[in-house]
Design a protein that fits this description.
Strand order of the largest sheet: 3-2-1-8-4-5-6-7
CATH topology: L,D-transpeptidase catalytic domain-like
Number of helices: 5
CATH class: Mainly Beta
Distance between the termini: 12 Å
Radius of gyration: 16 Å
CATH superfamily: L,D-transpeptidase catalytic domain-like
Number of domains: 1
Oligomer: single chain
CATH architecture: Beta Barrel
Shape: globular
Number of strands: 8
Largest sheet: 8 strands, mixed
Strand content: 15-25%
């Protein structure tokens, strides 16, 4: 579950050998090998749906909300940008700042684990946003639940300073207003977002 597996998986997906060597492990060596391997396996499993493979996103929900845990991994250049990310109310009912459980149920207000395909960008009630399509049984209700990428006031370093954790979403992947533009630009349509715990 190290660089060899990452490289082999990426070569199998059509990446050149030098890009495969850098891969996810090279770009984000501090991430859990289990989480990295799960993301790579998701990339391989859903390669027909995911048609842009230069950048993928990994949401590491083993990390508390007070720390950057959304990782935009540029596979080709071997660089990673890490950002603050809120989780769902239903995944943390006591508002501890730690995700306690995942759910794919309607009305759960929880975060769902698994592989997502990034969809179209749009302007919604939270401003600039991006639709998500759940690709696994664990998140295949994402569209019906309106699970998307957007920003909100309760995410940002000032919130962490004030209360030691971020606010919670209704299950969406929520960023600060300062970060949403970067996320939407770097994580365009047809890419993989993988959510899990290492």
């Amino acid at each position: 579950m190290g660089a060899g597996i990452a490289g082999a998986a990426l070569i199998g997906l059509g990446f050149p050998a030098h890009a495969a060597q850098k891969g996810l492990v090279g770009a984000a060596p501090w991430l859990s090998p289990v989480l990295l391997n799960n993301a790579l396996m998701a990339l391989a499993r859903h390669h027909h749906a995911i048609w842009s493979r230069d950048v993928i996103a990994i949401a590491d929900f083993a990390t508390p909300s007070a720390l950057p845990r959304f990782h935009l991994v540029d596979i080709l250049n071997g660089r990673t940008t890490s950002l603050l990310l809120a989780h769902g109310k239903g995944s943390d009912p006591d508002h501890s700042g730690y995700l306690q459980s995942f759910s794919n149920q309607l009305g759960s207000l929880a975060t769902s684990e698994g592989a997502y395909l990034t969809g179209e960008r749009y302007i919604g009630i939270h401003g600039p946003s991006r639709r998500l399509i759940g690709l696994d049984d664990s998140n295949n209700a994402a569209e019906e639940r309106a699970i998307v990428i957007h920003s909100a006031w309760y995410v940002g370093p000032e919130i962490v300073v004030r209360q030691g954790k971020l606010g919670r979403s209704d299950g969406c992947f929520v960023f600060s207003a300062a970060d949403i533009g970067l996320v939407l630009d770097r994580l365009g349509r047809g890419r993989l977002l993988y959510a899990g715990q290492g």
